[in-house]
């Protein structure tokens, strides 16, 4: 299925044992430093982080957000010691955010200041970081530091822009919205912008009306209670323009331009950010579909060819998508004068596809276009009308085309050496019916699938790269990849190649035998060493079992998220999301002493070699 050039690259560290402590563990010869934890001030409007949870919503709007997830390092002038770290802040731990957790008044309403702080802890950020004497630090008050929250003004672009679907009281012409939420995985573009992806945003909108609009039913908008209760918040003297009631999708007025029935239709997108211009607005690129977006990863662009992005929809039995630009790549666009205009060129017009994996090891990309044929002999146009409505109903349109339901598609990654694409399928406890690409029912451990697009861009070949499992499981039913104590893993989630071709895998696991053995972790593998000479169904086999190596283990309670690299390969950044009792100090490996309780702070961790060498290799 693949042709891979011979290459000398090899992993230069020994796999580490599993760990279950309130500290990080990293391979021998490496250091791990806490960088930019939740609450770190980014400018002079923020007070320093307080360990009692007493920082204000205004502090939070000007500080690092909570629950770091996807991220990307943007070098400044090509430097590997000075750059911008763009980071997602996926969600919050209310008990850590507030002094004594979330509160409600006698009528059950959330206080405005608490809700504002929660809104400001979500979203994304751009943070200037520099390496000084070998240690990374945040550049406080750098003019490029900025935050995007669930309240930030953003533009809508692509097919939904200006349509009746997205007109609200706030934007009567349907061209703008406020905020981005539950930003999980990420991407970047070949023209130097950051992509942040809206995943579990349906949980913050409430719609108690019946029946729900079909797109809201299919995406899972909350119908009885929301995770945070923002829509219930009492207004106060600073409330402007329905800043909380917009999360309630009730139709209260005569027209959509006078209420917020359409507010949720402005969420569920890939959002583009220009990290190098702090005055620019984020743009929601609606052409890339509306679902629970996990990540958005580009191919390495080829002159004269379209730009392609791969995207997972992370929920049980949802789908894998790709977007192929209408515009053809020209290398002059790698350094544009107006990056968001270049974004419009490549991301506002093109074709969205959903994947069908066939049992013979081939697959088909099914276009979500008005002319596309459904499995029952209609067209998407006959069901939905126009492209904007198809995109609003992306999941329903993909159902109609006969896409393959997957075991929770999380991140995609593109091998820079050969163009193979990898996808983490994190787990699926509810799968009762196996298919070739998701062959285990009640898949508690997850797997990683890969494919290679054919030149026609609508067909591909695929195989399963590795199956998660505990080491002790039956190799004929579960541990197909022959994992051992030194590389057993489950629930793969974050996934990225570095530019040399090492694949880094992160886990978001719990509640199984692997979780009993180790906290969440980062593993590395060089896939070219794993290819089965016969082609399809190449897995990590017994003779190759040391090829997959455990590099890093996080503290109790966390998942390990986000992967970013400096161009010189001397620093790798990962994120610790929702830790339980960490960090104890700026050394990420220092274990919080027994009997000591710290207010947990999600954080980036900067990993370097003690000898200053290149990460991962000898
Ligand atoms: Fe936010 Fe699918 O993980
Ligand atoms: Ca994830
Ligand atoms: Ca996950
Ligand atoms: Ca998660």
Automatic annotation (TrEMBL):
Q: Which PANTHER family match?
A: DUF839 DOMAIN-CONTAINING PROTEIN, SLR8030 PROTEIN
Which domain of life does the protein's organism represent?
A: Bacteria
Q: Please tell me the species this chain comes from.
A: Azomonas agilis
User: What is this protein called in UniProt?
Assistant: dTDP-glucose 4,6-dehydratase
């Amino acid at each position: 299925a693949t042709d891979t050039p011979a290459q000398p690259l090899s992993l230069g560290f020994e796999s580490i044992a599993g760990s279950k402590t309130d500290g990080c563990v990293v391979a021998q010869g490496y250091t791990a430093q806490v960088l930019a934890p939740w609450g770190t001030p980014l400018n002079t409007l923020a007070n320093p982080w307080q360990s009692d949870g007493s920082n204000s919503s205004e502090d939070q709007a000007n500080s690092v957000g909570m629950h770091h997830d996807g991220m990307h390092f943007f070098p400044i002038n090509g430097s590997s010691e000075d750059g911008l770290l763009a980071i997602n802040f996926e969600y919050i731990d209310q008990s850590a955010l507030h002094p004594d957790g979330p509160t409600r008044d006698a009528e059950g309403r959330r206080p405005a200041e608490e809700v504002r702080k929660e809104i400001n802890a979500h979203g994304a950020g751009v943070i200037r970081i520099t390496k000084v004497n070998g240690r990374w630090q945040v550049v406080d008050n750098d003019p490029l530091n900025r935050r995007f929250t669930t309240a930030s003004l953003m533009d809508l672009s692509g097919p939904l822009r200006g349509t009746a679907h997205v007109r609200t009281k706030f934007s009567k012409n349907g061209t703008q919205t406020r905020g981005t939420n539950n930003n999980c995985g990420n991407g970047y573009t070949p023209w130097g912008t950051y992509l942040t992806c809206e995943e579990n945003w349906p949980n913050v909108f409430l719609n108690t009306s019946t029946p729900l609009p079909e797109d809201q039913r299919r995406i899972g908008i909350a119908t009885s209670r929301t995770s945070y209760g923002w829509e219930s918040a009492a207004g106060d003297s600073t409330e402007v323009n329905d800043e909380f009631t917009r999360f309630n999708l009730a139709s209260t007025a005569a027209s959509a331009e006078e209420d917020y029935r359409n507010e949720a239709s402005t969420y569920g997108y890939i959002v583009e950010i220009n990290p190098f211009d702090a005055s620019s607005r984020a743009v929601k690129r609606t052409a890339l579909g509306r679902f629970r977006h996990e990540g958005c990863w580009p191919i390495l662009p080829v002159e004269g060819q379209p730009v392609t992005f791969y995207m997972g929809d992370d929920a049980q039995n949802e789908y894998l998508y790709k977007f192929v630009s209408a515009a053809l790549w020209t290398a002059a666009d790698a350094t544009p004068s107006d990056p968001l205009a270049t974004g419009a060129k490549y991301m506002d017009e093109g074709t969205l596809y959903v994947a069908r994996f066939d049992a013979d090891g081939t697959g088909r990309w099914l276009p979500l276009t008005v002319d596309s044929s459904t499995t029952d002999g209609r067209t998407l146009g006959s069901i939905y009308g126009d492209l904007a409505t198809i995109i609003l109903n992306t999941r329903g349109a993909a159902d109609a085309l006969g896409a393959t339901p997957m075991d929770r598609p999380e991140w995609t990654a593109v091998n820079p050496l050969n163009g193979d694409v990898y996808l983490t399928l994190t787990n699926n406890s509810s799968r009762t019916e196996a298919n070739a690409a998701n062959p285990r029912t009640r898949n508690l451990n997850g797997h990683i699938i890969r494919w290679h697009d054919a030149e026609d861009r609508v067909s591909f070949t695929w195989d399963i790269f590795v199956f998660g499992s505990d080491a002790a499981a039956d190799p004929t039913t579960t541990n197909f990849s022959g994992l051992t104590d030194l590389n057993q893993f489950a629930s793969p989630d974050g996934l990225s190649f570095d530019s040399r071709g090492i694949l880094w895998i992160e886990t978001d696991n719990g509640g199984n035998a692997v979780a009993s053995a180790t906290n969440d972790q980062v593993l590395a593998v060089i896939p070219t060493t794993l290819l089965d000479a016969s082609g399809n169904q190449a897995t990590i086999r017994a003779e190759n079992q040391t090829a997959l190596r455990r590099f890093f283990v996080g503290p109790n309670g966390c998942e390990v998220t986000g992967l970013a690299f400096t161009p010189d390969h001397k620093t790798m950044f990962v994120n610790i999301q929702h830790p339980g009792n960490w960090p104890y100090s700026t050394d990420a490996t220092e274990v919080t002493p027994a009997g000591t309780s710290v207010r947990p702070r999600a954080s980036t961790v900067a990993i370097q070699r003690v000898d200053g060498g290149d990460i991962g290799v000898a």
